[in-house]
Design brief:
Layout lengths: L1 E3 L5 E9 L2 E9 L2 H11 L4 H8 L11 H15 L1
Helix pairs in contact: 2-3
Amino acid sequence: MRYKTRGTCSQFIDVELEGNVIKNVKFTGGCNGNTQGVAALVQGMDVDEAISRMEGINCGGRGTSCPDQLAKALKLAKAQA
């Protein structure tokens, strides 16, 4: 599933779930090292655990962040599964 981000430097997040487990995450744009790190850390993690850890993280006063946008993408992917 491809998610169009809002309010961050990254433009898209591609999410692949296997049941309730995160199989793969790929960011398009954003701070490459940070987004690769976040994607690697959540791989194999339970979707709900990842959402609870990242939801609400704020970057530079934007009211959102790449991790927060990933939490939103995961919620949507889970709802569509």
